[in-house]
Amino acid sequence: MQRNKLKIVSKKIKRAIIKISGELFGKKDQPINFLQYDSVAKQLIKIVRSTGIQLAIVVGGGNIFRGREASLDVDHNEADSMGMMATIINGIGLREAFLRNGYEDTRLMTAFNLLDFAEPYIRLKGRHHLDLGRITIIAGGLGKPNFSTDSAVAQYADELLCEVILKASTVDGVYDCDPKKNKEAKRFSSITYRDALIKNLNVMDQTAFAMCTKSKIPIFVFDIKDLNKIPNILRGDYSFGTLITN
Questions:
Q1: Tally of domains within the chain
Q2: pLDDT in tens, 180-239
Q3: Is residue 31 part of a domain?
């Protein structure tokens, strides 16, 4: 499968990768909530079946633990390793929800070896799974400390020949300041990687932006509540979020 390196136009997207924040899978009093896994799985199954999209998923672990939240006294490499393990838990939970809801062609891949729980991530094998219409969940980030799941989704998007990165967020796009703190915040309908970096908008980390700038893969940031609108995105409708391109 060849990926068009140009800016997305109106053509229908055939392969996408979505980053789902770990916060979606938990609640304040319940870090792991199986109803949340179930809700996401049901929505994505419906979308895959109705559109035929080849879908890869990168999961975060923020509902359980983030390495950067550790005390300064804690070795940051060990803390990041704990954060990566948290994403594995979410990957297993999400895969179980896909299987239980009837999508047996689901695969969980990890950046490091956990053979009793998932298959190791191999680029060509991941592409093969997607070619066969298998929903492919990737957990464990990039398998190395100091790299966020933002960097992971940017890297995997390139390796798996995805045409767009979908970033399901807690807000409906990219704003000039935090919309949760400032009601006057203005949302960008589109913006370049360069401007997002210069304005320090904190959409993704700098490493992830650098990867996307090189691969020329667009990012669409939207509200996780609009997950059911993914078919609109695949048809070229970016009106309910922010499109980031070169």
A1: 1
A2: 888 899 999 999 988 888 888 878 888 888 888 889 999 999 998 999 999 999 988 999
A3: yes
The C-alpha atoms of residue 218 and residue 233 are separated, in whole angstroms, by 12
CATH number of the CATH domain containing 210: 3.40.1160.10
Residues 6+ apart with CB under 8 A from 157: 17, 56, 165, 212, 215, 217
The answer as to whether 154 is a domain residue is yes
Q: Which amino acid is at 148?
A: S
Task: Using CB atoms within 10 Å of the CB of residue 119, give its burial: 0 to 12 exposed, 13 to 18 middle, 19+ buried.
Answer: middle
User: pTM value?
Assistant: 0.90
Asked if 230 contacts 241 with a C-beta cutoff of 8 angstroms, the reply is no
**CB 81, CB 67: distance < 8 Å:** yes
Record the tokens describing residue 151, joined without a space: 């960097």
